Amino acid sequence: MDGLITKFEALGLTADKAKEAAGNKKLAPTLDGLITATGQSSFSKNTGMLLYKLAAKVTKEKTPHGDYIAQAIGSGRLGSDEQVSAATKFCSKNDPTADEKAFDAACGVGVVVSDAEISAAIAGVLDSVKDTLLAERYRALGRALGKVKSTAALQWADSGKVKSEFDAQALALLGPKDERDDPAAAKKAAKKAAPKAASAKSAESRGWEPATLESMFAEGEISRLHKVGENPQIKPELTAEHLRATGGQVITRFPPEPNGFLHIGHAKAINVNFGYAKTHGGVCNLRYDDTNPEAEEQVYVDSILEIIRWLGFEPHQVLYSSDYFQQLYDLAVQLTERGLAYV
Known about the structure:
- By secondary structure, the protein is mainly α.
- It has helices spanning 2-9, 15-22, 27-38, 45-57, 66-74, 81-91, 100-107, 115-128, 130-136, 141-149, 159-174, 183-191, 195-205, 213-216, 236-246, 264-279, 298-310, 325-337; strands spanning 251-254, 283-288, 318-320.
- The protein is globular and about 60 Å long.
């Protein structure tokens, strides 16, 4: 294990992170294999992080050409998260060694987007939504950023430079945040709240802006989730069956167990599951995981639905795991009889 820790530290991982990775039975052999595939023993911070992220997402079944991607990262052909994501997507359906030009084209290999091109593309997007930005100001920035990130000309641009230039141009257009961007101040003016209460609310809200759904899903790994039907399956017919069942629509679920009141962690899960579906024109089901009747009460069932609605969402369907107990039992019997499960 010590050898693996040393190897992983060479990627730029901290000692604690390297030790944690070395102890992960699924991640450790995958990451070790990818490092070996590069033929290198030392790496830049960026290269090391790309290899680490690759190891966390590849499987031999879904990404049979992981070693090829690792070599492309090690040689510098792939140098960003966006390129590596494109590479895993390409390799899930194609053999990169059979057509390296197609691989390079699909992953933006050799494409350089200049600072001037980044600036011009962002300026074009902001100009197209200028009226909305001037009316809604910083509340509309999340949607604008999402539009920038979907611009073809910026597909392979440095994401850090894109964000910095976007922020600079937005600031030049809108100016610094002021009372128009302070929800508490706006509420004070509308309702003529008492001075003390208004002062307290203003102090609590000063310096932050409530996130919009658009901004939540415009950045980071969640913005790169596969589209409906793009998640590779073992058999093509499984994808076809999935698309028939969903109608090509994003369908998510929030599955709490009604054995207590929800906490802050549930709030995050609610926003991600309901928000992601809503942002992409889909639906989210509330499915109670009522598998432990002794600990469950109706008061918790009612409270969960109330909180979801309080957060601004409405379930497409309200479902219960107990409705499927017989079906789950029958499936368990089938798996056992086929030697794929045991009791």
